[in-house]
Design brief:
By secondary structure, the protein is of the alpha+beta class. It has five helices and six strands. The chain has helices at 3-14, 20-25, 73-76, 79-96, 123-131; strands spanning 29-31, 44-46, 52-59, 104-112, 144-150, 160-168. The strands form two sheets. Strands 3-6-4-5 form a four-stranded mixed β-sheet. A two-stranded antiparallel ribbon has the order 1-2. Helix 5 links the parallel strand 4 and strand 5 (144-150). The longest helix is centred in the middle third of the chain and has 18 residues, at 79-96. The chain is globular and about 50 Å long.
Length: 170
């Protein structure tokens, strides 16, 4: 063994790194909110070296009735309905790549104010839908999440767009 290889091995040991086996045995750590342990979102997530990440672009809801897609908000529903549709689309996109909702570690949720609510974002409706996908018996995992109200999305009938990051330790 050359001096560089030996020095590198000693440095790795001193730093506590044991090679690829460590990265593959490490787990994703979900950090609960220390101020409110009952919060429906996490304070953060630690993803170990070597974990595989999948980042999905923002997804929007599908129309309730595709034949009525041009009918505006009525064809897509309220914020709760649109969030359920969007999360189901995310679930399908994850599954197509070998992931599940339980692998999601981060969401960014963009809400447009609902004209039926005086232009206010329906955070309660979005959270009700979110709770049916995360922190459940089927998927007990919560995610780090940011939710913002924005002026508009790509089409006037969209009230919700969500992008997702999933991670797996293989």
């Amino acid at each position: 063994m050359g001096w560089r290889t030996a020095a590198g091995a000693m440095l790795a040991m001193a730093l506590g790194w044991t090679g690829p086996a460590l990265a593959q045995s490490a787990a994703i750590t979900r950090h609960a909110n220390p101020v409110n342990p009952d919060a429906i979102i996490l304070q953060g997530v630690t993803i170990p070296p070597g974990a595989e990440l999948l980042m999905l672009s923002g997804m929007v809801p599908a129309p309730i009735d595709p034949a009525r897609a041009q009918d505006g908000l009525e064809a897509f529903g309220d914020t709760r309905t649109q969030t359920i549709s969007t999360l189901n689309r995310i679930k399908d996109a994850l599954a197509a790549r070998g992931y599940a909702l339980s692998d999601v570690v981060r969401l960014t949720v963009y809400l447009v104010g609902d004209p039926r609510l005086g232009g206010k974002a329906d955070l309660a409706g979005m959270n009700a839908a979110y709770r049916s996908f995360f922190g459940t018996a089927e998927n007990p995992n919560l995610v780090a999440r940011t939710t913002v109200q924005i002026v508009a999305l790509g089409a006037p009938h969209f009230l919700v767009e969500i992008d997702a990051t999933a991670a797996k330790v293989r």
